[in-house]
Task: structure prediction
Amino acid sequence: MCGIVGYVGPRKAVPILMEGLKRLEYRGYDSAGIALQEPNGLLHEKFAGKISVLDEHLAGRTFDSVCGIAHTRWATHGEPNDTNAHPHTDCHGKIAVVHNGIIENYRALRELLGNKGHRLTTDTDTEVIAHLVEEYYEGNLVEAVRTALSQVEGTYGIAVLSQDSPDEIVVARNGSPLVVGAGDNENLDASDVSALLQHTKQVIYLNDHELAVVTPDGISVSTLENVQVTPKIEEISWSLGQIEKSGYPYFMPKEIPEQPTTIRMATRGRLNHDAGTARLNGIAMNLDELNRINRVIITACGTSWHAALIGEHLLEDVARIPVEVEYASEFRYRSPIVPKDTIVIAISQSGETADTLAAVREAKLKGATVLGIVNVVGSTIARETDAGVYIHAGPEIGVASTKAFTSQITVLALITLLLGRQRNLSLETGRNLIHDLESIPEKAEQILDKTDEIRKLAEEYSKHDNFLYLGRGINFPVALEGALKLKEISYIHAEGYPAAEMKHGPIALIDENMPVVVIALKDAIYDKVVNNIQEIKARRGRVIAIVTEGDEQVCRLADHCIETPHVPGPLTPLLSILPLQLLAYHMAVIRGCNVDQPRNLAKSVTVE
Ligand code: G6P
Result:
């Protein structure tokens, strides 16, 4: 989604802002722009398309600015063209605003501003902010922004420049992330720490209803009501290397092989071998409350929702706690019943997904204790939940989530251990689960080594436009996730189904042109899945099977087999998803797709 970066200090602003924008590319966008405090006034340039288009327009020109803001826009109000790109300016081009979020009352504000003689020229909601600031400007930019924002309903992370305050950026947040980076005699701001990392690791995460005045030698934070705030400076733990491709053609093929490491990181320091349980400091203070839980609701979106479905199996099968999984976008609007003995778990890689955040707020409103399973430290969901567990997967830049998914499952397994051992889970079963969890990274390596084999398979199937993915039990969500990966990055239509449901509809689609990916591991329902494969073969469907090592029966039936090492029941998704991620990746590359930035998708969906 939209990205913001701002710089003020002694250095030339353009290279810093352009580099920052490139770091934000992964979020998804369709236009880009920049506003600069040039010696002869405010200059702004903005264009539809990739950042490279903006880059081309700036190339060969000299800019003296040491203060500026820049933006990548993901269109919500108004099509992605040059006019609607950010920054937006007031009537005289002296005030420039970049904005993430949605101004809900923009129509009323447009009318109001129009009646006062302002000329609004774009289709966006954002433009009203620039004109409101102009309307209230009486020589003090921060006061004008404060008054303007008091008129605004909706969500925003904004950065504002005024020609009359050449070394000052005013930023504010309500519902869209805004981080200020503290440097030496220079300060920055951004919607995402990855844009700051090259320059500083010291950051201040603004809270909702806060604004900051950022100058080369100071960051002053206050509330919208003008109460001074003492900012908390935090250190970013990510390294620059983690947000760079480091020789890989895309981030996705860098992130998929990281999974043996990231799964280990999710368990590091959290396994109590003696007691056969997990040690989770983030939720330790709520142990009493955890003891009283009789029901769990897990809410999330996208890939995180698939992890939630796997969490449902883990918590119900192993810890014997009833679980309900709900799309966050549905949960927030259907007045959910959240009894006192229920805990709500929100899963979000970014910690910023608007629907998941709204679900967290709804659950809290209903009096629930809400736990977060989040990757990005300091993100809004991490801060708004009562307690939680970071997955520590490091930055995930590829839009299609891979390593975050397996880390989320790992953390759900740890929560299962903790809650299970507080109940009836035996010491032996707890220890066995820990043992199995520790065996995953090495087994994952063995699957990742098959990337060439899977690429050849992808070459054979890359011309197909429809795929079916089947799985049962805990591997049904893996089928959903495998299908999602394929459609997200290769634009092939793919559907995930519980294998037995195939005969209630999808079987009508099966013929020699329909590849069916079946997860057919040696588990309790293996025989049933074998029957499903027979049904597909009887209709001349082509089967790609994900099997347990040495499974001759399925390999005889299927057209292709990808063998995976054996791991007992509830942890199989940590391995079975890996070949499906690789398959989706190779298919997308062969089809010439932009793997990291699929069309229309955003890494972090911060609007409804
Ligand atoms: C977007 C991303 C998905 C992600 C989903 C939820 O749709 O493209 O990859 O799974 O948001 O994101 P979250 O950050 O809340 O896990």
